[in-house]
Amino acid sequence: MTFSSSFGSSNRPGVPPLEVRLTRNGIGESLHRVHAVVCDQRGRVLMRAGDPQQLSFIRSALKPFQAQVFVSSGAADQGNHDERALAIACASHAGEAAQAREAFKILWKADLESEQLQCPTPSGRQSPLEHNCSGKHAAFLATCRRMQWPLETYLQTDHPLQQQVLKRVGELLGMPGAELVTARDDCGAPTLQLQLAQMALLFAHLGGGQDPELERLSRSMLAHPDLVAGEGRFDTAVMRSSHGQVLSKGGAEGIQCLSRVGEGLGLAIKVEDGASRAKHAVALHLMQQLEWLTPLTLDELGSQFLAPNPGVKLEVSGELRFDNGR
Questions:
Q1: Which of 22, 110, 132, 235 is 20 to 30 A off residue 140, Cα-Cα?
Q2: In the chain, what are the domains?
Q3: Predicted structure pTM score
Q4: Can you tell me whether residue 23 is helix, strand or coil?
Q5: Which residues pair with 21 in a beta bridge?
Q6: Are strands 181-184 and 190-195 parallel, antiparallel or unpaired?
Q7: With a cut of 70, which residues of the chain have pLDDT below it?
Q8: 147: buried, middle or exposed (CB in 10 Å: 19+, 13-18, 0-12)?
Q9: 284-299, pLDDT tens digit by residue?
């Protein structure tokens, strides 16, 4: 797919980034610059703030697309895995017992051991099952078992599993997977460097309902938002509050991606300095502008994520603007 020429120059005037200001007792203390873009399933940039060509690693927002191979390979069906298993495969979870148990079930049904997981054991924890990426890694291993691919090297970029991930992401983006730039994520798995508009396009596909595999994954995430992140975490709170209308999946270093379910629209956000508090503030601000959530729901989420401490507030300025070529 060739992205619309409406991308234009990254320095085109009139489309400034958003700004998030942290105030303490009404006095400005910190400032974050944030880029955001809305795309449809054809890859057209519909609205933006800042630079839609901003390059960044998608980090954990890639997980639903990594989990797609778990479904397409037949591994999910072979193990009779339910929606909870698919949700944990897409998760950046809190390492709670219920979440670790779902990752373990994926391994158990494929006759695998937790010691075969190559995500690290978090500090102060007892098992790699408690790592926030254990569901993804368990699904990786179960897929390798199903396809009779090597288990020991499943994280290497040239492994058949990772090549399938690249191929499928490339198909969604309309480009050869071999052209995608990869790097090692903190859990050891490959992640991708993408333009912000490409991230938005992926999430337009995820919530668009036209791809059966992605629709199955998105339905599972929405049915079990508690597994995708955890109590008190942004993605869980947004999906639970949206009643099936908004998909939300964040990534490290200021990445937040969302999709309006059934409308084929994806929203991608990147905070220049990587602050998670700023991406959450911008996501709520833009969902208000886009009318993706009700005012009451946004107020409830705002009370949880926009006032982290007494006397401290996050305030967003700026808005998405239609990409009209000016």
A1: 235
A2: 5-322 (3.40.710)
A3: 0.94
A4: strand
A5: 31, 315
A6: antiparallel
A7: 1-14, 324-326
A8: middle
A9: 999 999 999 999 999 9
